[in-house]
Every structure is written in C-alpha cells, then in structure tokens.
Amino acid sequence: MGLFEASQLSIGTGEDHLLDEAEDITAKILNEYYSKMMDLDDDDNYYQARVIVGNTLKYPHHKSLPRFVAKNLFLSNYQGENGWIHVLQELAKIDYNVVQSLHQKEIVQVSKWWKDLGLAKKLGFARDQPVKWYIWSMACLTDPSLSEQRIEVTKPISLIYIIDDIFDVYGTLDELTLFTETITRWDHAASEKLPDYLRICFKALDDITNEISYEVFKEHGYNPVHSLRRAWASLCIAFLVEAKWFDSGHLPKAEEYLKNGIVSSGVHVVLVHIFFLLGQNITSKNVDLIENNPGLISSTATILRLWDDLGSAKDENQEGKDGSYIYYYMKEHQDSTAEYARKHAVKHSTGGVSNNVDFGLSSSEVSRQKYADYAFKAIDALPASAHPMTQFVTSGCLISLLFYKHALVFALTSRSGV
Questions:
Q1: PANTHER family, alphabetically (predicted)?
Q2: How many CB atoms are closer than 10 A to CB 207?
Q3: Is the pTM of this model over 0.85?
Q4: Of the residues 36, 62, 87, the one at which a domain ends
Q5: 106 lies in the same domain as 76
Q6: What whole-number distance in Å separates Cα of residue 194 and Cα of residue 175?
Q7: Are 82 and 113 members of one domain?
Q8: What is the mean pLDDT of the chain?
Q9: Structural domain of residue 26, as residue ranges?
Q10: In 3D, which of 356, 401, 357, 363 has the Cα closest to residue 381?
C-alpha cells in the first residue's frame, strides 16, 4: 500500500514512468488481495482489512482530501496488530471534532454575509447556495488557522456563480456586452447606465473587491485591486464569448471552446484571490506571473473544465448538449461516440496536459517542489464548479489539480529565493 500511495506522486514526465509502472503493479496486487478478502468469512479482522485496502484503492492519499476520508479509517474500530493505531484514531477524532466545530462557525459567518449582501432577493434568477460555495473553500483551505481566508475566498467564488448565471440564463447579449465593457474599464459612471440587476451585481463586485484589497493591504502591505479587477475582466470577457456563440448558433471547435473555457472556469479569479490573501512573497515579478495566467494556472483550469464537462454530460444525461467539450468534440468528429469523446477528454485532462506544461522550473525543481514542506502547507484552492464537492473529491482530476496548485505556490516562492 505504501508503494501504491507513493506512485500517486507521478506527473507523467521524465523518470516518472517508473512510478506509473509501480502504480499498475501495486494496484493489481491490491485488487487481487481485496477480491480474496471478499471471499473470506466476515469476521472483524477480514472486514477491517477489506475496508483499509478498499479505501486505499478508492481514495489514495494524494488523490483525495485527507480530512474528508480520515473518518473511513481512523474513526472506525480497527485496531490491527499495531497498538499505535489507537493513538492515531484518538488524534483523528480530536482533530475531526475541533475542525468540524470551526467549520460550523464559519458557515454561520458566510451565511450571514450572504444574507446581508442581499443578492439572493435582488437577483431572484441566480443561485442561492452559500453553503455549497463555502464547501469549496473548506475543502481547499484545510489548515484550521486559515479561517479568515476561507471566509474571504467564498466571496469571489459566490460571485463567479452569480455572474455565470447572469450570462447563462438571464442577460441579453446587448446588456451583457455593456456589463463586460463596464467591468473591463471598471467604470463606475458607466455602471449607472446598466439595467438594475447588472448595476446591483457590479456594486457587489466592486465592494467585495475593494474590501478584500483593503484586507490584503492591511495584512501584507500590498494593494491588489488592479490585479483583482483584471482577473474579473478576463472572466467576463470569456463569459461574453460563450454568450455570443450561443446567440449566433456558432459551434466552436473543441479546442477553441477549451481555450476560452480555461478562462471561464473561474480558476484564475480564485487563484489570484488566494495568492494575495495568503500574502506569501508578493513581489512585482510574482504578481506579473500570476496576472498573465501562466501554464500552472491554465493547466489547472484545463483539468477542471474538462472534468466539469464530463460530469455535466454524464450526470445530467445530456451528452454535453449544454455546450461542453464532449459535445463540440463529437460535432467536430462525426464518427465519434459519446464514450470515445469522454475517454479523449479524460486523456486530455491528465497525461496530455501534464506533459505539455511549462512550469517555469527545472526538472530538479519540479521534483523538489512535490516534497517541499511549504508546498504541502500551501492552499489547495479549488475553483467554482457545477458539481457537488463529494463528486469532485472522488474524481480522478483531483491529483492533477492539487499538484498544479502546489507547483504554483512553490514556483512563486522559489522565484523569490525562499
């Protein structure tokens, strides 16, 4: 099991093919062992062994969120041959209860903020899911000490959802064009000429951006307002491109859709906010790097966009007809089945992406970054997605998302000599 867990650190480049081979071999052995355990009597020892092996195969440590799956093992009654596991069980229970209590308090704060903001009442067509949005921050910012950051990150995540709804289900193309122009220029005077629902949204976005910028300046001595505004402008421009496609009936090529979808995923917006809220090595070089949507961010967005489309098509039984990579791929390749298109998207989102990312680091730095203490204390920032967190946790994209975000933080800090 230890070798299987270690093999999950493969990024599919260089000598990592050895880890890929190790994963294949150990997975085969563990699956055979698991099958044998299924045929044995259901006494407690065999049952617990099946649970441990099954959870390892289903939720590898580096493909899951440990706090979410700890309950599967350490909160069970398993003792095994090692007495020390009881100590870990007790520690896990204490940690679980303490962190759970903290998250409950944060949910209360987020819910109050959302209610006071009033967008749910003012924009009746938009989603009203503050707890769901908070879950993303909770799952990404796992360090208990990052309570304030979790709450703050939930705010831009919520607005990504709201603005997405405006572009997808409510606004006319002319209104959305004016809104995008207003965001791009961040023109308060122009915002007064917008329809009421867009003016309300712009004011909320402006207020939240200014509030977060002030908090970052107060804590870290840097005002990120211009960077945050540029990130929101890029997002709205990408949303507008999709709205124009829909309005005109234009069917983009799959890669054209994906290129725009990388931005419309909201990954860049969230990671820019995370970067400044963490306040680690905010330098002009690092700010320029993160503003320009480097490969580390765009690759993360590629993975999320593809897996989001995969889930939408499969879960909603729409085969991507809501405008997904799968749908456009099948339109472009008329002889392709939905299943083949899905397999293509999976391949594209794993090895096909990781093998072509310009990390801006040497191979030795890439290797070192995976094990650096700082990287694994960094934020596993998850951007907004249409799927419940439980589905995302169990999906195969999590390992790649986590790796790219670890790499991003490490790249930024290493460029500053840390």
A1: OS04G0344100 PROTEIN-RELATED, S-(+)-LINALOOL SYNTHASE, CHLOROPLASTIC
A2: 12
A3: no
A4: 87
A5: no
A6: 7
A7: no
A8: 78
A9: 2-87
A10: 401
Which two structure tokens, joined as six digits, stand for 6?
């270690």
For the domain that residue 324 is a member of, what is the CATH number? Answer: 1.10.600.10
92 occurs within a structural domain: no
Q: Are residues 43 and 179 in the same domain?
A: no
Please check the confidence at residue 384 and state whether its pLDDT lies above 50: no
Rounded CA-CA distance 146/179 in Å is 34
Tell whether 106 is covered by a domain: yes
In a shared domain, residues 34 and 122: no
Burial class of residue 238 (count of CB atoms within 10 Å of its CB; 0-12, 13-18, 19+) = buried
The two tokens of residue 412 are 């930024």
Q: What pLDDT shows up at residue 258?
A: 93
Quick one: pLDDT at residue 320?
A: 36
Among the candidates 87, 114, 147, a domain finishes at 87
Same-domain check for residues 269 and 294: yes
User: Helical H runs in 221-280?
Assistant: 225-248, 254-264, 267-278
Distance CA 61, CA 5 (A): 7
Say whether 388 sits in a helix, a strand or coil: coil
Among candidate residues 315, 318, 345, 389, the one with its CA nearest the CA of residue 157? 389
The tally of domains found in the chain comes to 2
Which amino acid makes up residue 65? Answer: L
364-401: burial string, b at 16+ Cβ within 10 Å, e else:
eebbebbebeebeebbbbbbbbbeebeebbebebbbbb
DSSP alpha helix (H) spans, 118-146: 119-122, 130-140
SS (H, E, C) 7-60: HCCCCCCHHHHHHHHHHHHHHHHHHHHHHHHHHCCCCHHHHHHHHHHHHHHHCC
Closest CA to 109 of 141, 147, 144: 147
pLDDT surpassing 90 at residue 158:
yes
Cα atoms in the 13 Å half-sphere on the side-chain side of 332? 15
Q: How far is CA 302 from the centre of its chain?
A: 11
Q: Residue 368: what pLDDT?
A: 30
E strand or H helix that includes residue 304: helix 295-315
